[in-house]
Amino acid sequence: MIDFKNLAKKYDTPLYVYDFDLIENNFKDLKEAFKARKSLICYAVKANSNLSVLKKLNSLGSGADCVSIGEIKRALLAGIPKYKIVFSGVGKKDSEIEEALKLDILFINLESEAEMLRVEEIARKLGKKARISIRVNPNIDPKTHPYISTGLHENKFGVEIDVAKRMYLKAHRSSFLEPVGIHFHIGSQLTELEPIKEASQIVADLTKSLIKIGIDIKFFDVGGGLGIKYKDEKTIKPYDYAQAIFSTLKGLDVTVVCEPGRFLVGNAGYFLTKVLYEKISGKKRFIIVDGGMNDLLRPSLYNAYHRVEVVGKKGDESLADVVGPVCESGDFFAKDRLLPKTEHNDLIVIYSAGAYGFVMSSNYNSRPRVAEVAIENKNDRIIRQRESFEDLIAKEVDFI
After folding, report:
1. What are the distances in angstroms from CA 308 to CA 56, 191, 286, 311, 352?
2. Are 296 and 333 in contact (CB under 8 A)?
3. Rounded to whole angstroms, how far apart are CA atoms 138 and 131?
4. Which one is catalytic: 42, 66, 258, 327?
5. Are residues 63 and 106 in the same domain?
6. Where does the pLDDT of residue 240 fall: very low under 50, low under 70, confident under 90, or very high at 90 and above?
7. What's the CATH number where 191 sits?
8. All residues at 6 or more sequence positions from 1 whose CB lies less than 8 Å from its CB, including other chains
9. Predicted confidence band of residue 186 (pLDDT cuts 50, 70, 90)
10. The domain spanning residue 275 has which CATH number?
11. Is 327 known to be catalytic?
C-alpha cells in the first residue's frame, strides 16, 4: 500500500506519484507475451516523458516511440539506444527530420506522400539513405473515444492502402529512401481485440504483397493503444493481444514492433490533491481542491473517468463535483460522485493518472507545474522538482 498521506506531507500537493515496480511488472508481462517472435517494445514517450520513467524502461530493454525531436532527445538522454528509436507523428519539421537522420535512429514513420518527398529531399541533401516505414490506415473502427481514434479515413493519421502501395514503390526506386517497415495504429485505450486483429490482417496482407515484389519489410509495427481499467472496462490480456497479431503473420519473417504507452504507465500513476473547502450552490455540492485542469487535463478534455478517493475518510456519502481553482467551467476532476464529507486539507487521490497526466499539463492561470515522485522498492524519491514563479517567467524578456 502506498502511504499517500506521508507523500503529500513530504512533497506537498498537487503531486504526481508513480509506482515504478508496477511499471516494471507491466513491461515484463508484455515482453513475455511477445517472446514467441522477434519483437521490440518501443514505449510511447508521449504518455509520460519523465526522464526517470524513460531510464527505468531502458533498464528493462525498452525502445522508444517518439513524436517529436524533443522526445527523441529525451530517449537518448535516458540511455535508450538509437537503433531502438522510432520517429512517428503527422507533422515533422524539416529540422526535426534532418536531426533524426543525423542521429541514425531505427526508422522514420511516414504519414503522407508529401512527407515522404520531404524526407527524400533532406536525405539527398545529407547524402544519406533514410530508413522509413509507412503508416497505413486500415479504416477499422477501434471502438474508442473519437478524439483518440486514429485508424479511420476521417482521422488525420496515415495513408490508405492504395496510396501506401504507391509510396512503397516510389521509395523502393529511390536512391535516398530505404523502406524497412510498415506501421498501423488504430487508436488509444483499445478494449476490443477484434478491431486490432482485423487491422493487423489487412496490413499483413499488404506486407506480403510488398515482399513479393522485392520490397524487404523487416519491421511490422502494430502501434500501441492497449487499454487499461479506469472504471469497469474489460481490458485485453497481453497474451491474447500478441496471439491475435501473431495469427495474422503466418509466412512473414518480420520483427514485431509494439508501442505501448498507457498500458505501461497509466495505472502506475496517482495524482494527489488537497481539499481547500466545500461549497454548496443550490442543491449542488462542490469539493474545491488545490489541483486544477492545468495539472490533469483528461477529465476536461475527454470527459474521462478517473476513480477518486478521499484518503482515510468514510461515513455518509453524497453526490459532489470535485473541481479545481482554474477560472474555467471545465475545470473538474469528477462530477456527481458519491463522496464523504470533506474538510480543509483532506487528501484526495485520483487514480490512473500515470499516462497523459503531467505531460499534458500547462501553466495556465500562471500556475507552476507540480512535482513528480517515484516509488521503487518501497522507497520514494523526487524525479521532477515543483516549478517556482521564477521558473514561469525565466524565458520572458524585454518586459520593462
Report:
1. 27, 22, 14, 9, 10
2. yes
3. 22
4. 327
5. yes
6. very high
7. 3.20.20.10
8. none
9. confident
10. 2.40.37.10
11. yes
